[in-house]
Amino acid sequence: MDPTLTTVAAGFGGGAALVGWRARGREGRARTVAVALSLLPVSIGTWYLAMATGWALYAGDRVVHWGRFADGVLAIPLLVFVLSLLADADRTTTATGMALGGYSMAATLAATLTTGAAKLAWLGVAVGAFCALLWVLFGPLSRSARDSADAAPAFGRGRNVVVALFLLYPVIWVLGAPGFALAPALPLLPARVTLDAALKLGVPLLVLAWLPAADAD
């Protein structure tokens, strides 16, 4: 087992316990938001443990830790689901955003596993899906939050923080071996762990701090 990744997994386990503790006592819609947020550190911690125990794919001479992408397929839709609840969005908008988020990450995995023209093609698909997701977040979801008297004021702040962190992931991907290895000497593992912690621990704790303990359905 990789001791560094095992330590990171244990840290996210502790973080999951902290988010769960902060989520206690919620009622109504706030309870659903809290449960969804609690799953984020559980998911990333599980996949770091999987990576620590050697779960990987091989693309030529490269080792691809696909667990990070599997986490993204779950985590991005969960975050969209939370933002949709905060915006009091309809089911169609919620489902569309969740599907686009998961599909964008799946296409990124395909881009990671391929080379040459196929890599660029899959990257284009991933970027297209991500841009469509941004349209959902700043278009229909934002309009729903403005139109609903019951929309939580945490939506706007939560959306902005989530999108800012989302935009950092492609930068790390391009710089590292999964992308185009533009900066292979940089310590990218600490950057990935820091970004994961900010998105999957920091965001849940912030949203729970902003969200009233009881929020009507």
TrEMBL record:
It is found in: Membrane. The chain crosses the membrane at residues 6-23, 35-57, 69-87, 94-114, 120-141, 161-185, 197-214. Keywords: Membrane, Transmembrane, Transmembrane helix. It is a multi-pass membrane protein. It comes from the Archaea. GO terms for cellular component: membrane. InterPro entries: Arc/bac/fun_rhodopsins (IPR001425). Belongs to the archaeal/bacterial/fungal opsin family. This is Rhodopsin. It comes from Halorientalis pallida.
